[in-house]
Amino acid sequence: MGLDMYLVVEKRNDFDDVYHEEIAYWRKANHIHRWFVENVQHEQDDCKMYPVTREQLEQLLHVCSETLNDPSTSHYTLPALAGPFFGETSYDEWYYQDVSYTAQVCKTILALFNFKSDARLLYYSWW
User: Fold this and answer.
1) Closest to 98 (Cα-Cα) out of 49, 54, 60, 126
2) What DSSP designation does 73 have?
3) In the prediction, which pLDDT does 127 show?
4) What's the pTM?
5) CB 116: neighbour CB atoms within 10 A?
6) How far out from the chain centre does Cα 51 lie?
């Protein structure tokens, strides 16, 4: 058990069936999860799917870049979140690997995803 987090694209096939395609996955990156809960999920940590906008993704990229450029700000920019099965809350190499991965995910999605299409970008977590 543990905190699993996903960014998925919600699409429809030719028969108008909805399906989800995973485009990013995190495991126990509680600081990234906290950001999504506070900035996308309106403080509702309920394991439901929430749409993510271009502006929110740009904001997350900015926060990740700020954190990587000045690690002394980590406690303020991307604070850890303690919780059941949420993993470590220390600001160690794993923390910064998750931040770096998240920045790369944001850059890739912002460059390739068409936010004006019928497809939706969604975040959800499970533990």
Assistant:
1) 60
2) G
3) 83
4) 0.94
5) 7
6) 11
Q: Distance (Å, rounded) from C-alpha 40 to C-alpha 35?
A: 8
- Tokens coding 92: 């160690």
Report whether 26 contacts 105 (CB < 8 A). Answer: no
Q: b/e per residue, 9-47, with b = 16+ CB within 10 A?
A: beeeeeeeeeeeeebbebebbbbbbbbbbeebbeeeeee
CA-closest candidate to residue 29, choices 71, 90, 108, 77: 90
Tokens representing 66 are: 């700020």
For 7-58, write each residue's pLDDT tens digit.
999 998 888 799 999 999 999 999 999 999 999 999 999 999 999 999 999 9
For residue 3, the one-letter residue type is: L
**Pair of tokens at residue 107:** 């850059």
Measure the CA–CA gap between 27 and 23, rounded to whole angstroms: 14
